[in-house]
User: Fold this.
Amino acid sequence: MSDEKTRTEEFTLDGEKLVSKVKELVRQGNIRRISVLNKEGASLIDIPLTAGVVGAVLLPTFAALGAIAALVTECSIVVERVES
Assistant:
């Protein structure tokens, strides 16, 4: 049985700050999943992150986030973190 525990955090921000916040979260390295929700709470994108997924693998995701950021004025990021 694993000693890993997960916890979630939610950030509300303007669409223009979406890409930079997700990049910042990915760099932290202890993230299991990132979900972007519109202000009504509907999921716009769900990004599962596994160990070692960085760089070129995430480039298409950042492009999609840029498109979403252009369309929304306010959104929430729900982050699932791993704690060992």
In short: The helical segments are 18-28, 59-71. The first strand starts at residue 5 and ends at 14. The chain has two helices and four strands. The mean pLDDT is 82.
